Amino acid sequence: MAQTHLAERRNQVLTQLLEHVERADALLVLKAPPGSGKTFVTTRAVALALHRKRRVAVAAQTNAQADDFCRRMAAEFPRLPVHRWASAQRGALDLGASVSWITRTADLPPGPCVVVATSAKWAVADLDAHDPFDALFIDEAWQMSWADFMLLGTVAPRFVLVGDPGQIAPVVPIDVSRWQTSRRPPHVPAPEVILRDRTLPTRVIELPVSTRLPHDTCAMVQSFYDFTFESWSAPGERRVLLPPAATQHPVDAALALLTTGSVALMTLPTPPGGPPMEEDVALARAAADVVRRLLDRGARVVTEEGETALGPGDIGVSATHRVMNTRITDALGPLAAKVRVDTPERWQGLERKVMVAVHPLSGVTQPSPFDLSTGRLCVMASRHSVGLVLVSRDHVGDTLDTYLPVAAQALGQRDEAGRGRAQNLSLWQYLVRHERVAPMTPPSV
Amino acid sequence: MSRHDAFERLRAWDEGRAIANGHTLPWLRADAADRLVLAFVRMGGESSPWGLCVGRPDAPPEFFTCAEPRNADLHAAFVLAAAGALLRHVEHPSLLADDERLMLLAMEAPLRARVRLRQLWVPGPSHLDMLHFLDFRYTHANTGDPKVVRRLQALGRVCGWLFRESTRPGQVRVFDATARLRRAYTFPAEPVRQAHLGYLLAWLEADRTRDERLAEARAREDLPVSVTMSPEYERATLEPLVTRYNAAKDDPPAQALLAREIHDALVPELRRRWELTVQAMAALDADPRASNPHLDAVVDLGSAEYFHEYWKNEAKGLDPNLSDEQRRYLVHDPETDYAPARAARRYFAHLHAAELAAGELVHGDATLVEQSLDAGNALRGTIRAVEREAVAGKKSGPILWTIECSADDSLRLREETSVCLVGARKRIGRIRSLATVGAVRTVVLQMTDGLTKRSLPNEPDAADASALVGATVTFLEQAAAGFTQMKIFRVGHTDGPGAWLTHAAPLPEPSPPVRIQGNLLDLVKSLQ
Amino acid sequence: MRRDVRRRLEQYASNPRCEANVISAVHDVPMEAVARALGYSGAVGQSPFALLRGQQFERSLFRDDAVRLRRALITQKVLPANAAGFVDFRMSRNDGPYPNLDASRAAFLQRLAAFAKTVGDARLQLPTILAGPTLMVPGKAILPDGLFAIDVLTVHPQPRPAPIVLRVGEVKVYPDRGGFTDATELAATRAQAGLYVHALRVELQQSKLAQHFAVADDGFLVLTRPSFNLPSVRGAEDLQHQAERAAVMFDRVHRIAERLLPPDSAADDDIPAQRRQAVLDAPRQYADGCLSFCELAPHCQQTALAQGLPAALGDDLARFLGPITLHRALELLHGAAAEGDVEHDLLARIA
């Protein structure tokens, strides 16, 4: 039974967002945990704004995201016209009957409208000759630096910034010492800058329900967020069903855990001399074994929608090092054509029923601040709707326990290394505490 | 640590010497007349310099010291005496006749040509920090004889600009000799030891064994080269002199003699740092590698930065009719850019500089291409197909290249990234798709520029499958330098409707109160 | 008597992974003496000018009931605009009223107990700046007595039943250059401040005052304005994880404090050879940072080099090579066949 009582909370939050649009208030930051329906609520807010005869601009961070947003609008609000404004170099795409493709600034429509473009496109647009837009919605706003956000000040007087604060932070490729103590540091994600400034008339809304993540996964990834959210699914509602096996396999203990909860940590012993740092062939084979064994045993999944067979297309695999993804792909053999294997960066925005992920700290015995940053782990631990098997060498808990990072951040900044260690450790300890760890011995080499 | 850096450091240790990093050097050699070498020392615990040594590398340097750097007046007098060398080096407008200054302000090209290769060399990063401290101390100086204050402020500003310039990616104006040696060579030592210029130079000694170089490096390491002197030297030599100097405050002749003694005690410390810098410069000049052939754009950007970020403001600041507010706008705060627009503008300027330097220099140095591949900013593979895409209603569709690469290679490039061909940079494509199956990553490029033999006489036509299929090609990310440059200018627009938020303009009038009527959820549902 | 617990805490926090360093700090066996006995002369001494400046700066902050410090703390919103009151727990050699650390600690705890009993306006008007309060290292892990003074605490009273918030401040003489402020110095300072947060919490617990006080997870740094002798205060410094780090480190250090070393001599500069040897016999963990604080670092680096430990060529290389020695890495580069996953992985990464 889904947690339908949460529908009311979800509707309350959506209503708050719609009221914000209705009142034409100036600034809203919408924090959306994984699978919480941020596109769902954003499309509704945009639709309402257009219904109220407003000129609405929507900024996405990539063309693919802009296209997806248009498709969702076309599918859910087919009567509302949407303009996809893109570079002339891109060929026009069919994004739905209600979406028109425009490439010239001169083609921007007058009057009430919805125009969707990338942030980069809006940033360099010369809008002087056009009616001003009433509001700008920015998708994946945590991927946008404050400096880039500043360029959008020419678009509209009101802003709605939407995004997931737990995801992978954008790379800052230059030394930013000069601006670390600026009032509005240009390299910091725009929503962070806004939230730090208490003088701004900012309204913050947090989406309270993840429809994607199973109940116990929500509890596990909660430490990555500074607000709480719940799962749409009830405890134990989503699970993997495994028919009894005729033979034993080293990964079976981990798979058995998926029948009683959504997450399993399958560990391989760390070799006495230390683990391989990037290319860990045994670990790659173990990850592939999990996928193969799930399919060989005819696993089925139970969700609110009922029970279905688990197919290769329902499973995804993620590792941070490309070379590991290649080894996993090798180990999957013919299955590789049907099971997506990719880095967490590429998994952002996607989901599968079951995910197999190589723990980003497996093989890392002296973590750097970069290793400890939690964005990638957060993405890897939040792509599944039914089950997740984390695969790792067993040293990670000890490594995190032993390794105590110093706080060398710039003045006034958060101790991200210390925080990253604490969050990583918290997740590992959660799995140990809840008996979600199954050693794989011996490895299937 | 990148695999390149790890491999090279191991190799350097194995060979027992510093080994060349890259096929070229990413800066231009300059005549001695264009170079100024500057070294500092400071009193322990103090931020400002106690003495400095400055001069062209081909002539004896000048030494400036202060008997008691904690005395503000003495300190100001000492730096004032030294200011001329630095201000001359940057062609400070106050040193020019009015008509020349106005001419140069109107036509920037002659000045930019004059200073194009001006270089300031310092021994190491702590000496650059001294420029920053002088910026903090004197940019906002405000007490004393107005003429003196103006000159001290000018000194503070030039130090501030040089310090900021030293942090701009790819810059070729301010040379930290230690950093330049480390850029040019890989040394077989831990990074913290590589902070010592003398230590590095010992590894460059010819005809020595590893053990001999290591012993020499360790011996040189005992003599400090940062701005801080050995505590022992301070305790045994300088502290007694300073104590006697302060005690003799009622005896000016005795103080003068002690000031001389302090000066004499500081000179060898300064000289050693200055000479090491000149040695490092000479070692780099003698390196058989040429300068990167694609440096022009980088050097030109440096000249433009000099003019627009420094000289122009200095020239305008000489106008006695400027209001205080106008004058304030010409001055950068030593700590940070507090105004959001200025912070963002400079941030974009540094991003642009990084993109330009990376995008240009990589075409002149094969090692940089390999490093780009290592970092995932390039792709290398074999062309498997060249075809024209069929587009309904068009005679000829875009040219597509299908390239197969190893899936093991790191790749940060994504769909829609523009890439240019190594060896023929005008040939540009955009990544249409990326797909990995097993060990093979297939990249489809839509070729967008440099398609014909007319634009690239030495290359086959971009649609010539017979000439291209089977060839190994390397593509580099085509830095969207022009795009970032555009942002530098656009971020200054403070008049947009959202400027209240983006540019800290006054808050907009609140919207008239709206009464929420009916159920908005139902309303939205009805729109579906 | 060598008792400078604070300096030894700094030494300890600089490389807690090196057991030799920890023994030196915990049992008060100066590294300089150990290094000197091995023929190394280079003392990581301090500039006499820097020492003097540090003392003068700190004194200037607390002069006239800390008027200068208070102004800076109010400007940076560490304290509210109406903050008043100053209590001095410093020792007499630092211009304070107390003859030694024991007396300072007793007075501090007594005063905290009095603070805890206050109600109403008296509570809201508690003195807001406490200079040099003395604490004890948790579990007496730093021998002989583990007493040390911290720089400054600010007091943030709230009406009952809310606890009185104490906020740790650390005074340093190095300059505040905004984003260019030395990151290594900042890391060391925060490690120290985090340690004080933890020690203060334990002290409150042991004094049965914990329910009346809360030690803030954030603290403040008092640095100098570059080139001037004025304070530059930075508030909201995140110390939460550094306090946790200190708690973990003290847990580990107890084992070492419990180890029995041969007795010390009465003279400051006469370290018995057996005590020196105990340091030398302990496992050492050379790291890049050692050069900046440890007199034994050159010896450790040479030993590490001879043993082929990658850290001898840098922490970054050690991280890259993992368990593989320099000797073996070079053999692999010269074409030796890789054995085992770890070596295969290295070759794959470096190829």
Structure write-up:
The complex is a heterotrimer of chains A (about 450), B (about 525) and C (about 350). Chain A has about 450 residues and is of the alpha/beta class. Helices cover about 30% and strands about 20% of the residues of chain A. Chain A has 15 helices and 19 strands. The model of chain A has no long low-confidence stretch (mean pLDDT about 90). Chain B is of the alpha+beta class and about 525 residues long. Chain B has two domains: about 5-330, no CATH class; about 360-480, Elongation Factor Tu (Ef-tu), domain 3 (Beta Barrel), CATH 2.40.30. Chain B contains 19 helices and 13 strands. Chain B has helices spanning about 5-15, 70-90, 100-105, 110-115, 125-140, 145-165, 175-185, 195-205, 210-220, 230-245, 250-285, 295-315, 325-330, 340-360, 365-375, 465-470, 480-490, 500, 520-525; strands at about 20, 35-40, 50-55, 60-65, 120, 175, 185, 380-390, 400-405, 420, 425-435, 440-450, 470-475. In chain B, strands 8-9-12-11-10-13 form a six-stranded antiparallel barrel. Chain B has a five-stranded mixed beta sheet with strand order 4-3-2-5-6, sandwiched between helices. Chain B has a two-stranded antiparallel sheet with strand order 1-7. In chain B, β11 and β12 (about 440-450) form a beta hairpin. The model of chain B has no long low-confidence stretch (mean pLDDT about 95). In chain C, strands 1, 2, 5, 6, 7, 8 and 9 form a seven-stranded mixed beta sheet that branches. The longest helix of chain C has 28 residues, at about 50-75. At the A-B interface, α1, α2, α3, α5 and α10 of A face α14, β11, α17, α18 and α19 of B.
Number of helical regions of chain B: 19
Strand proportion of chain C, as a percent range, falls in: 5-15%
Average pLDDT level of chain C: 90
- Strand count of chain B: 13
- Multimer state: heterotrimer
Helix content of chain C: 40-55%
Task: Give a quick precis of the structure.
The complex is a heterotrimer of chains A (445), B (528) and C (351). Chain B has 528 residues and is of the alpha+beta class. Chain B is built from 19 helices and 13 strands.
